[in-house]
Amino acid sequence: MSVWRQVQGAVDVALPTIEHDCRPVRRCWSWVVAGYGLAYAVLLVLGGRLGDLIGRRRLFLAGMAAPVLTSPACGQWS
């Protein structure tokens, strides 16, 4: 449950920026939070299944390598 609280905290911190950039109606904020939670839950289940199929260690190493390999490319084109 503590990981979910951290994720939810990140969404709560981002809400003022979302409001400023997108100007959603205040009642739409619950949809933003719910959509983020749904995406997080789906990716969590997908990650668990991939860990079962290819192994937790290999999935962890791939997850650690992806940002390391893509960050220089993003820095080059920004």
Q: How does this structure look, described?
A:
This protein has 78 residues and is mainly alpha-helical. 88% of the residues lie in helices and 0% in strands. The chain has three helices and no strands. Helix 2 (29-54) packs across helix 3 (56-77). The longest helix has 26 residues, at 29-54. The radius of gyration is 16 Å and the shape is flat. The chain starts with a helix and ends with a helix.
Head-to-tail CA distance between termini: 36 Å
Annotation, overall tally of beta strands: 0
The oligomeric state is single chain
Question: Which regions contain 5 or more consecutive residues with pLDDT less than 50?
Answer: none
Q: How many helix segments?
A: 3
User: What is the helix content?
Assistant: over 70%
* Proportion of beta-strand residues: under 5%
Mean pLDDT: 82
Overall structural class, as computed from helix and strand content, comes to mainly alpha
Run of helices and strands: HHH
* Outline type: flat
Radius of gyration: 16 Å
Q: Please summarize the sheet with the most strands.
A: none
Layout of secondary structure:
Blueprint lengths: L1 H21 L6 H26 L1 H22 L1
Helix pairs in contact: 1-2, 2-3
Q: Concise description?
A:
With 78 residues, the chain is mainly alpha-helical.
